């Protein structure tokens, strides 16, 4: 489980204290960044920053304690992701930069880690959009069924079914790859 805010840090953030917002950012931004990376955002760091720039002036209106704060932040993140995909659909596609063709530098540790995530991203790509969204919000963002239901505007039962079906599909994919490798 990810790090948690203390009650004092949460109170400070909700009252507008900069140190409280700093604590909120430190604790929750890695999960938001992971959410964007898992959903294939090409500049996940910038989108994460945008989320927290949007969240800062609205913190005093957040209700529901720790859970309410996480739900609010991931609601903003989800909205930013939807905007990102809409904007991407309207933007012309350019030839992608291929780091394997660029011999000006060697790969960094970050490149190695992000390269190993390709298998996860391709496995998630086999799911339908709702199943993928539920799994990323539940596992990467560490949100409860109820929080995900609120973000996706679905019932908790529907979220549970989407999660179950997504996990079954991933299990079958792993079995197929293991069978093919044998």
UniProtKB/TrEMBL annotation:
Gene3D superfamilies: 1.10.1740.10, Winged helix-like DNA-binding domain superfamily/Winged helix DNA-binding domain
Presence of the UniProt keyword Transcription in the record: yes
Keyword Oxidoreductase: no
The species this protein was found in: Arthrobacter globiformis (strain ATCC 8010 / DSM 20124 / JCM 1332 / NBRC 12137 / NCIMB 8907 / NRRL B-2979 / 168)
Family: Belongs to the sigma-70 factor family. ECF subfamily.
InterPro entries: RNA_pol_sigma-70-like, RNA_pol_sigma-70_dom, RNA_pol_sigma70_r4, RNA_pol_sigma_r2, RNA_pol_sigma_r3/r4-like, WH-like_DNA-bd_sf
Protein name (database record): RNA polymerase ECF-type sigma factor
Domain RNA polymerase sigma-70 region, chain residue ranges per copy: 123-172
Listed NCBIfam families: sigma70-ECF
Record keywords, A-Z: Sigma factor, Transcription, Transcription regulation
Pfam family, one: Sigma70_r4
Biological process per Gene Ontology, one example term: DNA-templated transcription initiation
UniProt GO MF annotations: sigma factor activity
């Amino acid at each position: 489980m990810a790090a948690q805010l203390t009650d004092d840090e949460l109170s400070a953030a909700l009252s507008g204290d900069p140190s409280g917002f700093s604590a909120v950012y430190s604790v929750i931004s890695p999960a938001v960044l992971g959410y964007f990376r898992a959903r294939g955002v090409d500049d996940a760091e910038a989108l994460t920053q945008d989320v927290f720039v949007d969240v800062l002036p609205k913190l005093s209106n957040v209700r529901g304690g720790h859970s309410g704060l996480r739900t609010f932040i991931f609601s903003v993140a989800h909205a930013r992701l939807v905007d990102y995909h809409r904007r991407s659909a309207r933007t012309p596609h350019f030839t992608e930069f291929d780091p394997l063709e660029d011999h000006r530098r060697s790969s960094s540790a970050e490149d190695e880690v992000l390269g190993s995530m390709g298998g996860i991203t391709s496995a998630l790509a086999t799911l339908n959009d709702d199943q993928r969204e539920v799994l990323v919000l539940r596992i990467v963002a560490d949100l409860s069924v109820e929080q995900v239901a609120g973000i996706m505007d679905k019932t908790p039962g529907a979220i549970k079914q989407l999660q179950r079906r997504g996990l079954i599909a991933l299990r079958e994919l792993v079995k197929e790859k293991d069978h093919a490798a044998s």
